Amino acid sequence: MKALRVFVIRHGETDFSRARRFAGARDVPLNARGRLQSEAVAAALAAEPLAAVYASPLERARASAELIAKPHGLEPRLAPLFREMAFGQWEGLLRDELAARSPADATAWRDTPHLAAPPAGERLAEVAARVGEGIATLRDSHAGATVALVTHAIVTRLIVLQGLGLGPERLWSVDASPAGITELEYQGEWVTVHRMNTIAHLDGTP
């Protein structure tokens, strides 16, 4: 089976990510810095032979993907399976606000994220299942090609963990910075992580 190369990119900065608020399913837009960061990603990947650019349907990912796709003359393809984890009643809260409102929930999310259950939200296992389905679809559709996927922090972490054969309980073992680039190669039963959360392309952005 031919290899699939995937650049997984977290969307650029938003006011929520800057403040470390739970955004989840909310349609939070990029801020000015986030647009500059996405333009820097576009420049970094301009010479790559991208066959397609996929994006979570949430605005912050779509807007980032449009900038990244532009040098290639591509239009982003929406991929709902890669939307961010829905945090339900946690959405809009700062981490400290969650801790004050529900110490048990905050502790679970910090220490055992795979067991956390945001009210009216998703469990991590549910997100991991749909992300795995999304990756399988990409592998079927783009064997032998290179694609970009613009998504979110939790999704990016889960993609890396699945590639390394690790479970969602290891969520905090990897990081996903705004506009960070992660590169994976899928070849048969093997997944190789070529780079993870690189941000050197952001040097010089405000």
What does this structure look like?
- The chain has seven helices and six strands, in the order E-H-H-E-H-E-H-H-H-E-H-E-E.
- It is α/β, with parallel strands linked by helices and 206 residues long.
- Strands 3-2-4-1-5-6 form a six-stranded mixed β-sheet.
- A hairpin with a 2-residue loop joins strand 5 and strand 6.
- Helix 2 (32-44) packs parallel to helix 3.
Low confidence ranges: none
First CA to last CA: what distance? 43 Å
Shape: globular
Biggest sheet, in brief?
A: 6 strands, mixed
- The residue-averaged pLDDT reads 97
Instruction: Determine the structural class based on helices, strands and strand pairing.
Output: alpha/beta
Count of individual helical segments = 7
Order of strands, widest sheet: 3-2-4-1-5-6
- Number of strand elements: 6
DSSP helix fraction:
25-40%
List SSEs in N-to-C order. EHHEHEHHHEHEE
State which percent range the strand residues make up.
Answer: 15-25%
> What is the C-alpha radius of gyration, as a whole number of Å?
16 Å
In short:
The protein has helices at 15-19, 32-44, 59-69, 95-101, 103-111, 124-141, 153-163, and strands spanning 4-10, 50-55, 77-78, 146-151, 181-187, 190-198. By secondary structure, the protein is α/β, with parallel strands linked by helices.
